[in-house]
Amino acid sequence: MKHSIQIYVKFNNQKSNIMDTNLKKVLMRKYPHLFNNNSELISSEFEKVEKLNLSFENLTSIEGIEIFSNLQYLNCYNNQLTSLNVQGLDNLETLNCANNQLTSLNVQGLDNLETLKFDKTVKLDVPFVFNTSMYCAFQAADKTIRCGCFKGS
């Protein structure tokens, strides 16, 4: 059984659940400029982040990702996520969470979301995007159904 440790920090007198240790390690390796010498997030840096690529990192959780409030693009393709809640990432335009083991996906209230990529039988916590058209395509190689949404014009 895998265990994860939750890390909590306090910004502007608000306690915020940031991330488990695996997510922090990935962020420190891929985005070292977000951290100070004490391995703490620098608020002036993470507030600028508009794009995160967390694909192929074997992550089981990205809980706390909402700290990146200006995030517009999030790629968490090909991890081990079973549920994903990105509610609160109000600026998010593109989310790719395909090739995980998602059974629940919450994108509620993301009015700027234009592209959503996911697969298999994901329970969407909706309503999420109005004026949306769905597409699904069967992938013969891995025998999965890939689905996505594109915001209507």
Task: List its salient traits.
3-stranded parallel sheet; 2 helices; 6-stranded mixed sheet; 11 strands; disordered N terminus; mainly beta; about 10% helix; single chain; about 150 residues
Question: In short, what is this structure?
Answer:
9% of the residues lie in helices and 34% in strands. With 153 residues, the protein is mainly beta. It is globular and about 40 Å long.
Main β-sheet: number of strands, strand sense, barrel status?
6 strands, mixed
Mean pLDDT level:
75
Helix and strand pattern = EEHHEEEEEEEEE
Helix-and-strand structural type: mainly beta
Helix content: under 10%
Structural shape = globular
The total count of strands amounts to: 11
Strand order of the largest sheet: 3-4-6-8-11-10
- Global Rg: 16 Å
The protein's oligomeric status is single chain
Amino-to-carboxy terminus distance: 46 Å
Spans of at least 5 consecutive residues with low confidence = 1-17, 126-141
Percent strand:
25-35%
Count of alpha and pi helical runs: 2
